[in-house]
UniProtKB/TrEMBL annotation:
Segments passing through the bilayer: 30-52
Family that this chain belongs to: Belongs to the band 7/mec-2 family.
Record-linked InterPro entries: Band-7_stomatin-like, Band_7, Band_7/SPFH_dom_sf, Band_7/stomatin-like_CS, Stomatin_HflK_fam
Domain spans labelled Band: 50-209
Protein name: Band 7 domain-containing protein
PANTHER family membership: AT06885P-RELATED (PTHR10264:SF19), BAND 7 PROTEIN-RELATED (PTHR10264)
Amino acid sequence: MSVGWKRTDSGGYECFLEYEKANSMGCVEYAATFGSVILLVMTLPFSLFWCFKVVQEYERAVIFRLGRLRTGGARGPGIFFILPCVDSYCKVDLRTVSFDVPPQEALTKDSVTVTVDAVVYYRIQDPLNAVTKVTNYSNSTRLLAMTTLRNILGTRNLAEVLSDREAISHAMQTNLDVATDPWGVKVERVEIKDVSLPQQLQRAMAAEAEASREARAKVIAAEGEMKASRALKEAADVINESPAALQLRYLQTLNNISAEKNSTIIFPLPIDLISYFINFHNGTQII
């Protein structure tokens, strides 16, 4: 038992008594450890098969002695020694683990129901916290990933969910990493796999896209007609300036018609050629 003084909230001091329970627990621990050593010596060499343990390069062992975490941190890789009956250990895999987030149905910011699934990659960064701070770090990370995905989808519009998946993945990774850091878990990567929309909304979006494509096609056709009209006007102006060009056009037209092997060929005569006969029939003569 120890006597001391501590400061109160009002600014004064008060006396307190503290029983040294640590020493009594230490004595029990020392006695149990001593008995375990005796048992180990009495059962040699068979006890060595249960006392020496091996962990791989990608594993770490967290050792407890009578429920208390042993000093020195996690053991491994390699061989480590435990005492029978008083020591227990837990292996932790440090490799990157991936799991699928089940499809989550959420309501976006613009009140559209979407179903999104993702993949999360994580690894254990601190084996001690992964064992002592959370009961099941794997299951806890999975549940947290599902809730985080729904929360992030609720802050985005449908257009952002469909077009900006990378930003959603980055935001989800950041939120998960901050939340799992006290557990010794490091979230390395998050990927959005698929975004599913209701059938009615898919049909509406398909109709909207088709109408948009038809509108663009009509605009392109109108622009083509306008350019063709301008080119035709320029060609007519050129032909009007040169009568010989008109005659060459007539001959080219006849060449195209004859190439088709038609039975009837219409030969257009220039109006200047037949104007003489028309005036002569009317009783006039052009000199």
